[in-house]
C-alpha cells in the first residue's frame, strides 16, 4: 500500500506505508514499514501513533495501540518499522467486533499533527460455518482481519521552523526610509510561542 504526501517546501516527505502482515489474525500485532524522504533536517523527533476505531460514533472507545518517536531525522530517504499491539477485546462492544472498523496512523511534529492516514479494516471468522452462523460469544482466536489497500489521507499544514527577528532598523537616504518588521505570535499546542514575520516599508518623512 503506497501513499504520497506533499507537505511544505521546507519539509516534503514522500511516504510509503507497507503492511508486512496483512491479512492476519485479529489478535496478531500490526507490523508495517513507513518510508519517507525529508528535504530538510528536522531538529525534533517525529511522533507516530496507531489508533483503532471500533465505534465511529463513540470516540471514548478509540484505542491507541502504540506510539513511537522517530529521530533525529536527516535529509534523504528514511524508513522505520512499526509494530503495534492488537486491540483489546475487552474494550470493544460485541456488536462492533465483526465487520468494518477503522485503523488510523497519525504523524506529528512538536505536538502538531501533519498527516492522518485512515484504513478500513474488515474482521470476520476464519471459516465459512462461523461466518454463516456466528456464535453468541465472540471467539477472538477464530477471527481474521484484512486491511483495505486504499487509505484516506488528510494533510495538515504546520509550522516546521520558527524564525524570530527582533529590533532591526535600517535607515538610508533613499526615498524609502527604514523597514518595519512585524512579528505575529500564536500559541502552540505545547503552550509556548511560535512566530512568523512579515516585512513592510514606510515612506521617509
From TrEMBL:
Signal peptide: none
Keyword annotations: Chaperone, Nucleus, Transcription, Transcription regulation
InterPro entries in UniProt: ASF1-like, ASF1-like_sf
Keyword Chaperone: yes
GO molecular function: histone binding
Region (Disordered): 186-205
Transmembrane segments: none
Record's subcellular location: Nucleus
Family, as annotated: Belongs to the ASF1 family.
Protein name: Anti-silencing function protein 1
Naturally occurring in which organism (per UniProt): Russula ochroleuca
